[in-house]
């Protein structure tokens, strides 16, 4: 064998076949999700993945959170109004009799409407009738009647009226004054009585002797008394 013809022999083999370490890196954040509440303060979340690249071999994992939370819809929620209790006592009645009205109130404050909430339904004022008893009516006189015929015994005539225009009602005051109005009068049969009242023994002196007054008109004054024809 020719020594000058010798070729060096080299042996090659693989080593360190384990994959090289790759540290993880975060991918992009996702969009925030829906808010957990429509008002009054909620939360929404977004996430990211440790995949750009992912961890390989003995590489280090991504550092930091994989999720992020933020507040959302922190505006106040609408509050619908509710009525409070009727306030205090009724107002003074508008009339003392014959039917009046009185009122009382309440406030839309339990709670009051807020943040676009609805107002209270219904009225804040309540009315009711009061003092419904009839009012007193004071009596009033009717017109006088015509004069009556002359009374032959008393030599008087009369006229009357009634407390009926209107009649007193419901505790109203009665009419004040007389129901009957009388005055002296004369007819033929009264003359002897009138003469006796003057101390003339039943006979009138002068031109009145034996005369009847039935045909006389207007008034006459005899013995200091006024005598009227009815």
TrEMBL record:
Gene3D superfamilies: Thrombospondin type-1 (TSP1) repeat (2.20.100.10)
Keyword terms: Disulfide bond, Repeat
Keyword DNA-binding appears in the UniProt entry: no
InterPro entries named among the record's database cross-references: Compl_asym_regulator, TSP1_rpt, TSP1_rpt_sf
Lineage: superkingdom: Eukaryota
SMART domains noted in UniProt: TSP1
PROSITE patterns according to UniProt: TSP1
Keyword Disulfide bond: yes
Protein name: Semaphorin-5A-like
UniProt source species: Lingula anatina
Organism ancestry: Eukaryota, Metazoa, Spiralia, Lophotrochozoa, Brachiopoda
Gene name per UniProt: LOC106176619
């Amino acid at each position: 064998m020719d020594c000058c013809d010798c070729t060096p022999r080299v042996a090659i083999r693989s080593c360190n076949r384990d994959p090289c370490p790759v540290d993880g890196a975060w991918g992009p954040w996702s969009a925030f999700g829906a808010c957990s509440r429509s008002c009054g303060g909620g939360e929404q979340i977004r996430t990211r993945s440790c995949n750009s690249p992912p961890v390989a071999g003995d590489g280090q994992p991504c550092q930091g959170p994989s999720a992020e939370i933020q507040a959302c819809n922190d505006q106040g929620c609408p509050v619908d109004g509710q009525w409070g209790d009727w306030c205090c006592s009724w107002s003074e009645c508008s009339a003392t009799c014959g039917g009046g009205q009185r009122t009382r109130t309440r406030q839309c404050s339990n709670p009051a409407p807020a943040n676009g909430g609805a107002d209270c339904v219904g009225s804040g004022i309540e009315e009711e009738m009061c003092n419904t008893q009839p009012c007193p009516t004071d009596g009033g006189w009717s017109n006088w009647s015509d004069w009556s015929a002359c009374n032959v015994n008393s030599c008087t005539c009369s006229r009357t009226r009634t407390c009926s225009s209107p009649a007193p009602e419901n505790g109203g005051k009665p009419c004040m004054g007389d129901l009957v109005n009388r005055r002296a009068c004369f007819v033929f049969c009264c003359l002897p009585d009138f003469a006796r009242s003057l101390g003339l023994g039943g006979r009138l002196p002068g031109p009145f002797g034996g005369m009847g007054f039935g045909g006389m008109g207007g008034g006459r004054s005899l013995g200091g008394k006024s005598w009227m024809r009815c």
